Amino acid sequence: MLKTTVVVIGGGATGVGILRDLSMRGVDTILVERDDLGYWTSSRFHGLLHSGGRYAVKDKEAAKECIEENTILRRIGRHCVEATESIFVRAPEDSEEYEHEWVKSCAECGISAIPISMDEAFKLEPNLSRKLLSAYRCPGAAIDGFRLLWQTVASANKYGGKAMTYMEVTGIETENGEVVGVRIRDRWTGREDKIACDFVISAAGSFSGEVAKLAGLTVNVKPSKGTLIAFNHRICNRVIHRLHKSSDADIFVPHGSITILGTTSIDSAPDDTSTETAEVVEMMKVGEVTFENIYDYRILRVFAGTRPLYSADPNAKGRSASRGFVALDHAHEGVKHFFSVCGGKFTTYRLMAEKVCNMVCEQLGVNEKCHTAEENLVDDPSPELINRAKAVFPSYGAELASSRLGNDKLERVIERIEKQPEMKELVCECENVTRAEIEEIAGEPTSHTVSDVRRRTRLGMGTCQGTFCAYRSVGAIDKEDVPWSKDTVNLCKDFLETRWKGIRPVLWGNMLRDIELTRAIYDAALNLSGVEDIK
Amino acid sequence: MRKSDILIIGNGISGLFAACIAADMGKKVQILSYGAGTLTIGGGIIDVLGYTDDGKPIENPVLGADKMASGHPYSKVGAQTVDKALRAFLKIAESEGFPYIGSPDKNQWVPTAIGNFKPSCLVPRTMNSQAIFDAENILVVGFDTMKDFYANMVTKNLRKHLKSDKNIEEFVVQLNFEYGRDLRDISAMDVARWLETKEGYNAFVNQVKAHIKNSTAIVLPPVLGLDPNYQILDSLEKDLGCKLVEVSSLPPAVTGTRLDKMLNSYAKKHGVQIIEKARVVGSEVADGKCQAVITEGFDRQRKFYADQFILATGGVYGGGLIAGIGSMVEPVFNINIDVPKVQTEWSYKHLFADKKQIFAQYGVNVDNDLTPVAADGSKIASNVKVVGRSLAGYDFCYEKSGNGVALITAYKAAAAFCGEA
Prior knowledge:
Structural class of chain A: alpha+beta
Number of strands of chain A: 24
Structural class of chain B: alpha/beta
Largest interface: A-B, 52 and 62 residues
Oligomer: heterodimer
Strand content of chain A: 15-25%
CATH topology of the largest domain in chain B: FAD/NAD(P)-binding domain
Number of helices of chain A: 15
Shape of chain A: globular
Distance between the termini of chain A: 52 Å
Number of strands of chain B: 18
Radius of gyration of chain A: 23 Å
Distance between the termini of chain B: 31 Å
């Protein structure tokens, strides 16, 4: 049996934020996550660090929080943020009145919105539709969800915080109306255990209702599914918003060599991440207003996540439900020391954590204040380390690897390559991932599948969507001889199936061509699926 | 402009083979070629039919082809054509000094780069897997710094698939290529080129020799030379005193390149004219017959005239079919392929669906003479035949029938145009 002061349930942005915050205040904390970190909502979004502009008219409080947190995250999470800035553009069909109101609201909220001429806008973003009428520069940015989560956990680790993945909570134990522990089950080994604790904070997002049920409580979360399209092009260098009342498919966010278009809003089950062709076709139509050549861009994949919208009113729906967040102290319902936090946005994850931790610390009698805005998630690599990295990584890979690995892992990967230069071979050419990195990450105890390695390295997230790197990464992982590498055929198949899920609804043009190649390699040449009858 | 008897659009395996057959029968043949083709991406082995529709391994591909449901290209051309076409291929390979092994009525199990086996029918002698089943010792040879072959994984999986009394070990040959460490990656093509040099050959023999015991078979990536002959294989088998077996592997395909070279060589020797960089963008059809096809270059369009035309432009991958949102079209004759409007109906939920994928079977509908037909059954052009991957009704990946359908339909089309049944 394990023992700690606080158990956090849920390894999304909110959960890891709480883990880091409490750990920094000296409170013993363990986070348990049923899947991999960031498996659900915290990676299934645009990867947008809001400037607040999108909320300026409708929800000034949320807008102010966004711009404040945006400024903080650019600083403390700078290895996860690409400070692109954003442009809000108004199309002929968008209300001019709204534009005036928006300009005024941004000023009130402290969001810099600099008007620029359309000539200037087209110079900055040549692919923008020539029909657009006005444009403003704002401080939005792109942010890498997976990386932010792992780096937040790495920061918490320094203060003794611990995260356990693939650990399902099977029960919340109470005595005399007070939380005393949680029962857990390791999903890989099936082993059951208990963590004795004084407090439980559920940060389970769309699954908050299900977690609350374990303690016999009700939390009204309305999961709302949003679908996103990843294009295989950097269509724009800045985040592009439509300047109108928030709606579907009106945000483009550039990430490295790709662009993500989002999103939609449909009431759904918490675990519904399915996507439909019809949604994509509708989104393309809207997206065409911003980028008129949208049909010429190759789609990489589509994906979906659910927003954990909270509503005190169980009948509220979709975008009308609050985008703010709530922290519920369930003492009022008869269970002491059990909190649920839900709603909110990725951009404000740190602030949400701070507010919940303030509540918990007050009850714990901990006076230490929140320090999460003051300290960077990971240290910058030293000039010596960067020089060693530049000597071993191909082309611009040194910067990429240093950002995604953090110092300790970067150093271990560099050592691997220094010892064996051929380890710098690129397993994933699209995302510049070396064999040394794959082997290092595959060997970590938190890795159980190729997809786990993907979430930590970006393996297979680029143009080929696993067509070449599925074989290569599995071969490299096999060499590392980790316990989960025994069945290499199924590792390949499972990885390709996860990639296929995002391609299936958009199986036209080059996406279908790529799948033909994938099948020619893995089915025709390597026969991953056929039975064998060797005489 | 020279008018040919038969004009073939596409110089992949089906276009080249149709050209060889027609030229053999005395026809004046031209091939319009654009791009490198997929032959150099795919393997150079002739899969004819490996599995039934419900996934059972097939021992005799000719018999298996005879049982295919109507709509499948084999059911259209008939089992007899399957046999004839494959024998014609074997003859051509033999005459080019690059004989293939195997027989149309028997499948063989070929090792793959992941360490399992796939059924195929005719394979080059470098892939004669019998050696693996006969030998007591198997040495899986990889090359350090060479991409896309993991001796460790092949070894581990071969141990699972083969009888436990076999001794299976791995060995990694050091290449020491300067460019492999800094400048660029090394593919099987590079290693094949290296083995063609005296230094490379000797280095390979010197490193491997000590690991050869009695009754050994070497399993290695396709690196035994880039040309369609067995010089390197034969010399190595003599110098090492053991058999060598190449695996079915990932692109770039050395084995496919050899087959490409062999068919090109045969076609050119027999008077086939291959016109390169000729991208066919359309056709002229009048009175139910194709008069000409239109090519487009940098500055102008050109027309190519012929009595008869063979469309061998490939499938979606090769550019012979173009898929849009809820639509698919064959661009040369502008044939609309009947596909569902909603893309998710094109496929099953799983990519490896344990049955034929739906989209894989989309293609041009033809009658039993391989003449393209419209939805109402009427011929689109009576002097046109469609061959290979453009055809509807089969899933080469699931069935393991890719190069087989290409060769067999190409043979049928060419022979029919030459007056043979």
